[in-house]
Amino acid sequence: MVLLSPRQQPQVINNLFKSIMEITLTKDNFEQEVMKAIMPVLVDFWAPWCGPCKIMGPIINELATEYAGKVVVGKVDVDQNGGYPKSCKLIPSGIMMV
Fold it and tell me: Which of 4, 7, 76, 84 has the fewest CB atoms within 10 Å, measured from its CB?
């Protein structure tokens, strides 16, 4: 058991909720985390070089926080995980999987 000081607790809790609200999707976990999810999933297809993706990123992060526990937000870096954008035809692209 790890005991945290009162100053550490909010940061640890915030990090825990962030990890639950927003997940990194890869070829390896996409099927399990999106296609077999029990909650709706907003999938953000993005790339580091994509200007509109950089603009949309903070908005999607806010949605992840606002809808925590109701919707899972997953992010796919299309440069690292090729194949998914072919089904979407473009980035930036946010797709709601229900």
Answer: 7
